[in-house]
């Protein structure tokens, strides 16, 4: 009888630990740590850090919802100049993409409607100056097939970009948790 109780007891302990690790709150929340740029952030509950690359993370229940941390040189520009340049480049890419899609539509269906090209157009919902960990930052919220919230943080002569994307129709439900994660950003 005693032999049977030990394995059953271990099974119960493992089941309990598995249940607790999936609970909300502080339990089960993973942290992104990127030591080479002095970055850390607590992810929303249910999100996981990619095992292959700690700069990538995703919603465990829907991998279409994901995020990443990037860093780039400012190349002698201010943070606002850098973002203006990035947004200008994005606009030029959209124009080229639209022309290409319209040519494809003409070749395939005989006319260009523009509807397909418009589906890929990125709209800037908001651009808000912020301070994160005492550093100048800008928050951008954009929308296309996905909604994105990103924060670009100036650290010396570099910009650290933290972004989350979610399906457009799911973004409103995820937005509070994504904003909470962005508030948890620490940069040394």
Explain what the structure shows.
The protein is an alpha+beta fold and 188 residues long. It has a single domain, classed as Mog1/PsbP, alpha/beta/alpha sandwich (Protein Transport Mog1p, Chain A, 3-Layer(aba) Sandwich). 37% of the residues lie in helices and 36% in strands. It is built from 4 helices and 10 strands. The strands form 2 sheets. The chain has a 7-stranded antiparallel sheet, sandwiched between helices. A 3-stranded antiparallel sheet has the order 1-2-10. It is globular. The N terminus is likely disordered.
- For the record, the CATH class is Alpha Beta
Span between termini: 57 Å
Oligomeric composition of the shown chains: single chain
Number of helices: 4
Predict the CATH topology. Answer: Protein Transport Mog1p, Chain A
CATH architecture: 3-Layer(aba) Sandwich
Decide which structural class fits the backbone: alpha+beta
What's the total number of strands?
A: 10
Strand order of the largest sheet: 3-4-5-9-8-7-6
Q: Identify the CATH homologous superfamily.
A: Mog1/PsbP, alpha/beta/alpha sandwich
* Major sheet attributes: 7 strands, antiparallel
- Helical content band: 25-40%
How many structurally independent domains?
1
Low-pLDDT windows of residues? 1-26
How do the SSEs run, as a string of H and E? HEEEEEHHEEEEHE
The portion of residues forming beta strands comes to 35-45%
Report the mean per-residue pLDDT as an integer: 81
What coarse outline follows from CA principal-axis ratios? Answer: globular
From the alpha carbons, calculate the radius of gyration and give it in angstroms: 22 Å
């Amino acid at each position: 009888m005693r032999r049977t109780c030990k394995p059953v007891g271990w099974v119960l302990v493992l089941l309990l630990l598995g249940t607790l690790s999936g609970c909300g709150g502080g339990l089960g929340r993973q942290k992104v740590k990127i030591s080479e740029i002095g970055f850390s952030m607590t992810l929303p509950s249910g999100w996981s850090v990619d095992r292959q690359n700690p700069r990538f993370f995703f919603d465990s229940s829907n991998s279409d919802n994901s995020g990443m941390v990037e860093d780039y040189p400012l190349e002698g520009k201010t943070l606002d100049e850098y973002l203006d340049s990035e947004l200008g480049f994005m606009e030029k890419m959209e124009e080229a993409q639209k022309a290409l899609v319209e040519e494809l539509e003409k070749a395939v269906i005989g006319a260009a409607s523009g509807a397909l090209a418009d589906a890929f157009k990125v709209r800037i919902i908001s651009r808000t100056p912020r301070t994160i960990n005492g550093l100048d930052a800008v928050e951008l919220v954009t929308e296309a097939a996905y909604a994105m919230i990103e924060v670009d943080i100036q650290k010396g002569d570099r910009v650290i970009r933290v972004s989350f994307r979610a399906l457009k129709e799911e973004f409103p439900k995820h937005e509070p948790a994504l904003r909470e994660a962005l508030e948890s950003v620490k940069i040394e």
